[in-house]
Amino acid sequence: MSAPDLSTLFSGKLFTIVFWLLLMGSLTLFFNGFITQRDNPNQSLVTQTGTGEVVLKRNRSGHYLAPGLINGYPVNFLLDTGATNVSIPARVAEAAQLQKGRRFMVSTANGVVPVFQTDVASVSLGGITLNHVDASINPHMDDDVVLLGMSFMKHLDMTQREGVLTLRIPSSG
């Protein structure tokens, strides 16, 4: 019996390792996409300005998340009808070049905190764009999700049915 060829053994093991790495990488990408879609089913929301309507699906936690724009800067919104104003984390406000106005106190789920008033030149969610929206810059928000409160939502007609929220600019007629 002859000794096995070392290069054949090495290439066989290398092939096996590469195969398993590619399989694990592919599965990771697949399941990350699945989880992301489950947590934010609106991540592919098409931004078509001027259509005046947006249809959002509720995520598995019961929330409506969607991508949008603040002064042209891309953000992720969490629709929050319990928030009086649009509430913007300080990091996002800085990136969107928003100016801090007067300081005032607000009640949040985490207690009373100081925030700063600001005027957002434009807020876009899908085909809806509103100008000069009242907002607050909140330095106490840890993530980059913007709470899309009633200072934006009060200008829209809202219909919720079976996990789907339709937002529409009211017709002026």
Sum this structure up briefly.
The chain contains three helices and ten strands, in the order H-E-E-E-E-H-E-E-E-E-H-E-E. It is α+β, with helices and mostly antiparallel strands. Strands 2, 3, 4, 5, 6, 7 and 8 form a seven-stranded mixed sheet that branches. The chain has a three-stranded antiparallel sheet with strand order 1-10-9, with no helix packed on it.
- Could you describe the largest sheet, including whether it forms a barrel? 7 strands, mixed
**Termini gap:** 93 Å
Number of helices: 3
How does CATH name the architecture of the largest domain? Beta Barrel
Protein structure class: alpha+beta
Number of E-state strands: 10
The CATH class of the largest domain is Mainly Beta
The helix content, as a percent range, equals 25-40%
Taken as a percent bin, the fraction of beta residues is 35-45%
Order of helices and strands: HEEEEHEEEEHEE
The tally of structural domains comes to 2
CATH topology of the largest domain: Cathepsin D, subunit A, domain 1
Compute the average pLDDT. 85
Tell the overall outline.
Answer: elongated
